[in-house]
Each structure stands twice: as structure tokens, then as C-alpha cells.
Amino acid sequence: DNAMAQELLYMSIGTGILEMNSRGQGFINYRYL
User: Fold this and answer.
1) Number of structural domains, the chain?
2) Residue 26's CB: how many other CB atoms inside 10 A?
């Protein structure tokens, strides 16, 4: 399912951002991509 693939993609992107930025900012950026 495409929606499922998007969820996984956003999750992996969010994880990468979390490692680069502070935890809070990374989570916010991931939520609003």
C-alpha cells in the first residue's frame, strides 16, 4: 500500500533528522515534511 510506504519513508527521514538535530526540532521537522 502506498500510504504504508509513505509512513515508513517519513519514519526513516524523521530518524535521520533526529540524529542530525536536537530531538525536539528533529521531531517537528519530521512531522511537517
Assistant:
1) 1
2) 18
